[in-house]
Every structure is written in C-alpha cells, then in structure tokens.
Write a structure and sequence with these properties.
Among the domains are: 64 residues; 57 residues, no CATH class. Helix content is 54%, strand content 0%. It has 8 helices and no strands. Helix 2 packs antiparallel against helix 3. It is elongated and about 90 Å long. It starts with 10 loop residues before the first helix and ends in a 12-residue tail after the last helix.
C-alpha cells in the first residue's frame, strides 16, 4: 500500500515558509511557499494546483523538493539548453565600454548611438549577433535608457544680442507691473 504524504509542517518549518511568503525577493519561491502552506492548512493538492494554475504533479514536486531540501528546494533549478549570448561577461563589458564613448571616438561618422548602430558595432567587436528584441531587452536589464539628445544652439548665439534681449525683457517685466491691465475678466465699476 502506498504511503500517505505528510503535508503538516512543524512550527519551525511553518515559520520558515511564512517568512518566505512575506519577504523572499524571488516571486517563484513565494508562490511555491504559498502552495506548501496551503497543503499544511489542509487543502488537497488538486485544490492547490487549481489555485496556483499548475498541474498536480507540479504541486507534488514542490512538496517533495521542500521536504528534501527545505526552502532552497523551492528555488528555480538551472535549465538545460543553449546559454544566452547576452549573459556573456565579455559581451556586457564591451557594451558598457562602447556606451561610455561617443561614436566619433570609435571612428564613426555619426554622433548618436541608436539600438541598430550599437547592436551592429557589438557584433563587429564580439562576433556575436543578438536579435533586435533580445538586444533591447538586454539594454533594459542593464538599466540603459535611450533619451533624445538636447540640441543646444548656444554656440550660434551672438552674446551682445543675447544681453540686449535680456535687458529688454527685464524692462518689459518692470513696465508691466506699473500699468494696470484692462484684459482682466474681473474689474471694478468706476
């Protein structure tokens, strides 16, 4: 006869699970700890699976991993498959160095990095090409934000004309406070 699973937690395990539910930074650990607590409270694995939107097998696996390894058993395990090119330290280092320089310093005829230009440059430097969307996601993960350049025409302004305009503006400001405006919607009758 199959052995019945024990879902009840001792006080130490319950405290650990509740602490994880409230304070763990990993969302999946919080979700899985919630499932373990629901089992402790007497919910059937099928109910827990329905509430958590997972299969019953998944709930059983979470429970088995928790029993075997404690809270660390609820952490995501490494996944198989090809590792991401963008996770490569060398690629990220070249990205950071490149964004620290202006394009003309690297021999380009343009002054602003666009996502396409930056991606093309990194492919040339590292030999690795990311898709446009993956590259944009990498920039977001690294907290890089694109902002439009602010064009400054200061170097084209005549300093004397600028000073005259400033003085004229000051005089106009002083004059407007001394005269009464007739454009107000609220006036007194004479």
């Amino acid at each position: 006869m199959a052995e019945r699973l024990k879902y009840q937690l001792n006080s130490e395990e319950l405290a650990m699970v509740e602490q994880a539910i409230r304070h763990d930074e990993r969302a999946r650990v919080r979700q899985r700890a919630t499932a373990i607590r629901m089992l402790h409270l007497g919910k059937h694995p099928s109910e827990v699976a329905e509430v958590m939107a997972v299969s019953m097998v998944t709930v059983y696996n979470w429970h088995a991993r928790f029993r075997a390894e404690g809270l660390e058993g609820l952490v995501d395990r490494p996944r198989s498959g090809r590792p991401s090119v963008a996770d490569d330290e060398e690629y990220c280092r070249v990205l950071e160095e490149t964004l620290g320089k202006d394009p003309p310093q690297l021999g380009y005829a343009f002054n602003i990095w666009t996502v396409k230009r930056l991606r093309d440059h990194l492919e040339k430097e590292t030999g690795k090409r990311l898709s446009y969307e993956r590259f944009r996601l990498l920039l977001k993960e690294k907290d890089y934000r694109y902002r439009r350049p602010k064009h400054d025409l200061h170097h084209l302004q005549d300093p004397e004309a600028k000073e005259q305009a400033r003085q004229l503006l000051e005089e106009l400001k002083k004059g407007s406070s001394q005269t009464k405006s007739s454009s107000s919607l609220w006036t007194k009758r004479p």
